[in-house]
Each structure stands twice: as C-alpha cells, then as structure tokens.
Sequence to fold (223 residues):
Amino acid sequence: EIVLTQSPTTMAASPGEKVTLNCLASSSVRYMNWYQQKSGASPKLWIYDTSNVASGVPNRFSGSGSGTSYSLTVSSMEAEDVATYYCLQLSSYPFTFGAGTKLELK
Amino acid sequence: QVKLLQSGAALVKPGASVKMSCQASGYTFTDFLLNWVKQSHGKSLEWIGEIYPNSGATNFNEKFKGKATLTVDRSTSTAYMDLSRLTSDDSAIYYCTRSGYSAFAFWGQGTLVTVSS
Fold:
C-alpha cells in the first residue's frame, strides 16, 4: 500500500501570503489529485492529474510534482481557502489518501 | 449536471447490517466507475472499493473485504453498499464518488452511519 504523508498537519497563513502544502508518497505514483473539504461538506476535487485545476477553482491554486513528491500552492491566501486539503493517489490499489493539511487564517 | 444523491442517516445496532444507496443522475450510469469512501469522525478518508456499473465487477481495499458488498441497479441508476457485522469502528460518513478526469470527480453528500445499542 502506498502511504501518503502530508505536511504540515496544520498551518495558518495571513491574507495574501503564499502557501505550499506537501504530499510525499512512499512509492512513486504517476500523478496526484487534491481535494478541498470544508467543515460539514463533502470533499471537492481541487487539482487533478497533478497540475490541472478543477472547474470553478480559483486560479490562485496550482499543483506540481512528480514521482514521490507533490505539492499544492496557493499564490495568495484568502479567507475562503480555509479548509482541509487531502491528496489522493490512484496509481495503484488500494487507492490511498493523505491524512490532510488543515489550512487556517492567521 | 452530475448528481449523486445518497440515502439518509442510519442508526444501527452492533452486529447488524446496513444498506445505503447512491442514486446517480446527469450522465450515463454505465459509463463511469463508482467508488465508496469512508470518513470516520474528524479523520481522513479511506477508499473502500469500486464497482463498474456496466458489468458489476468490483475491486476492494483488502481492509474492507468481507465488510462491504457493492451492487448496482442499472434500471434506476443506483449503486448500493451493504456493510455487515457492524461495530463502533464502522460509525462514519460514507461517500459515493464517481470517477472522471483521472480522479474522484463527483461526490455524493454522504451517509452518516452510527452504530450504537
């Protein structure tokens, strides 16, 4: 099973600050997906196939990475970005999620 | 637009079973895989398994083999998940999610299962 380790576990960012969330895989994966989940809501697809921003996602979000190291970047933090972000690998069974990074507003 | 409408919350006794549903609309039901995901309270997400609606073929996370059964009813575009021999560890929100864009692209609203005597 591929284990996805997300860092940091929690972070607080000021409005306008650049934010980078990381996802490290225990084995190489072909690509990474990212989800945003707000309290009481279902996860939403945020970034797919490593770097493609899902429909409706603000263009301040971007994704990058390869092999075992992936990241999601927010170029300029906004209040509406407060949420937990999860990475997901679909390269091998069983599909696995990271434990999540909780992004808060400073 | 794609919608996945899941059945309502369930309160079940330990040792019992529960069957939940996920009704799809807005696309051709048999064209896309459906997956099921577990989220225990305040915790991360776990993939349970997937079903191919056109054939009924399934793949499971080893952890959920013997616990979860996945089926579909193509006449009503509905997927079902049956969870058996429930314990407190099975208390969670369960999501159905449809594949697309090499990802789990669309999600239902979730079904809360509470196991309690």
Q: What stands out?
A: Chain A touches chain B at residues 31, 33, 35, 42-45, 48-49, 52, 54, 86, 88, 90, 93-100 (CB under 8 Å). The longest strand of chain A covers residues 19-25. The CA atoms of residues 35 and 46 of chain A lie 5 Å apart.
